[in-house]
Write a structure and sequence with these properties.
The chain is α+β, with helices and mostly antiparallel strands. The chain has a domain of 132 residues: Beta-Lactamase, CATH 3.30.450. It contains three helices and five strands, in the order H-E-E-H-E-E-E-H.
Length: 212
Amino acid sequence: MNLGLNDIFNEMKGHRPRDFFEFVRERLPSAAGVAVVPDTGEKIVCGNTKMLTPELETDLTARCRKNPEHVSSEPVPPSSGSPDDDLTSVVLGCYIPAAAACLLVLSPEKWDRDLLAGMMRLLGEAYETSEALCEQKEMQETRKAQFEREKRVLKENNRQILEKNIRWHEDHARTLESEIKKQTKDLVDASHAAEAASKAKSEFLANMSHEI
């Protein structure tokens, strides 16, 4: 099935939140959170997010979408009472333009929220820069491949032109040689004919003189 341009563009956009999360996980292996794509509602989960309730997720996503420039945060209500739950008690919501998604990050309450938000935004900018560099590299590789292809085509065309010129000169040389041979034969035949005529004339005159 052939995809239209809109389908291809949407598919490319759909990879950005997932790619961004992978980008974040490489740099922050312990990061936990959810990326929500507002346009499609798709969610990409990273790490242990069991304490992020659907209500919190919906609320923060709506707030991020309404005000992309604002960083929202909400405390995570107590859950199972597991000691691990105490380590993560705040969920931070911010919109990451580079990923075209709302990023909800679970963090310890003692962490500075503005610092974490700034870190996420910096990672978003780093991701966008990385994507731009990758696109430039791909473009350069595409141009290089195109240049090599054009060079091969030009080389092949030059070879064909050279071979055509060589064949033309060879044909012309053979034609010229044949014409020279023909003219030489014509000259020899004419010379023989002239000699024969001269001899016949001489014999005729000799016979006439003898008869007289």
